[in-house]
Predict the 3D structure of the following.
Amino acid sequence: MKYMLLVYSNEQAWTPEEWKACTVESSQVCQDLHARGQFHGASPLHPVATARTVRIREGQRLITDGPFAETHEQLGGYFFIDVPNLDEAIAVAVRLPAAKKGTVEIRPLFDLQGLPPKAAESTGGALKVILLCYDDEPFWHAAGPEVQHAAMLEAAAVTHELAAKHKYLSASPLHPSSTATSVRIRDGRRIVTDGPFAETREVLGGYYLLSVRDLDEALDLAARHPGARVGSVEVRPVYELDLGL
């Protein structure tokens, strides 16, 4: 089962030395997973000050500075893993140093057929960004399966266009937020709760990992995602970190 681990913590809670140590320890987790064939990608994100959020309302593109949600803990990175079950995903989340200061949200990936194959994540000097697609789940539920399917086909068509231009790295919808699990370590004790990290009307429904020319191009692509007409698409630059793999 493929999972996305979303790492949330207060950016101000880390000294530069602690952040460096965190990346070293996290890289070791990645290396261990890679040796077992369970690692599919990971990276820290640039600070939330670099985030832009895109919405389309009544045909107008609205771009605001900052992340989708203003929370005490901010999304600081992600891991993609392939493990047999949720218990093993939780065991990986517990090993991440951010779980001691923040929260690791575990979300199963939805296997959408028809997406291009995952590309090598070497960007050749281009800007690597992740588009975090926040959906209004009640809206899509009320719209019905045909509308949902049409939106997925529209989103998938964008990925093929990007792949032809060598801008596509990977993408996937996520299973509903009801399948989310949040993991924290406090005073050496593991705390596992059902549900996503943040309780908001719009919830993370999927992602695109892209290699683009600049932030303006990333914003243009975010505006093309059908979810932007109902929800929000957060654009975050990805930090290029040598994981030693």
Summary: The first helix runs from residue 16 to 35. The chain has a mean pLDDT of 91.
